[in-house]
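Students often ask why we bother encoding 3D structure as a string. The short answer is that it lets us treat folding as translation between two languages. Here is a chain of 378 residues written in the first language.
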Amino acid sequence: METDIETIRVSEPREVLAYIPHRLGFRPRDSAVLISLRPPRGAVGLIMRVDLPDLLDPEAGPQLARSAITTLDTDGARRVMCVLYTDGPDPRRRPSPLHVAARHVQDAAAGPFGPVDVLVVTPDGYLELGCDDDACCPAGGRPLRELESTLVGAHMVLAGSAVAGSREDLVPVERAPDQARRSVSRVRRRWEARCLEAWAAGPDAVGDWRAASVAAWRAAVASVESTPAGRAAPWGRLEAGLADRRVRDAVLVSLVPGTGDLAERCVRGIGPDPADDAAMGAALRRIMDADEGIAPPLARCRTHEQTLQAVVAHGRTGHQAPAWTLLAVLSWWRGDGARTQILLDRALADDPDYRLARMLVDLLAAAVGPGWTRRRAA
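And here it is in the second language, the structure alphabet:
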């Protein structure tokens, strides 16, 4: 779904509440969501979701709130809105930890933004945390069905937006049939054996094996473009190839438009080639750098995502850190932080020490977005 977020503007809080699940891609639970409202007329900018228990922590919570507010300030926000999602009842009639979470956000935002409206969404209704007017926010909150009749909600549905029921549902990858997986497994083992033979034979043989692995990536992408799920694609070769860091980096470079045959060039030889390293750095800056970063071509990204998801679907359970991490890179490049975190969780579950996944985790923790989003904010 491709929607220009600059066209979404705040007319009333319920419009924002209707928009948040579409923007995140799932219905938040036990979460705090902070929204950047940009000038001149309240355009919705960056949306950040954090786990509510993290925000409630007496030591880490205030720091988390300050970090989030700093990021929204960098986004160009004029004011900030906070929405707390809870499975509990209306918090206004009794002591509630939601007041602690709200205070952490309000204290952090007081300097740059002043007062922050805090809304609460319960399983049954929505309300403003500081509102005691029964005409505005009756006991239990206003009914959630009101959110189904907003202009924003109608716009998103017409644009083809679908909302997952939970955060985990954002990344559904069905396993391929057993027979297909067994066939892929046999090819993968043969390709892994070929890799060992290549290392014994010398640098040229290793370069040939890596180049053939990149060719398997190209063939898999072409297969997905012509036949979704790509049964004839060389999944076994590709899965084995992605376990090699140079091959994985070559695939990463190939995600960037305009890189030509750089992926093939950078897998030749054992040692680094300064010219190819410089070209690879230039390619990655088109994803990461605030001055040179470009927005991802969405149709191309979808094809690459489908290809990597098929690698996971056909591959060994518990050994997919490279594919999960490359999927996380694509998701981060699109600015989808919620999906990125899920993908990184899966990568690190398969390999807790996978370095590229760890680097991306650090970017998320520092609230660093892809280059094109930071250039726009500037």
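Translate back mentally: The longest helix spans residues 178-201. Keep this in mind for the problem set.
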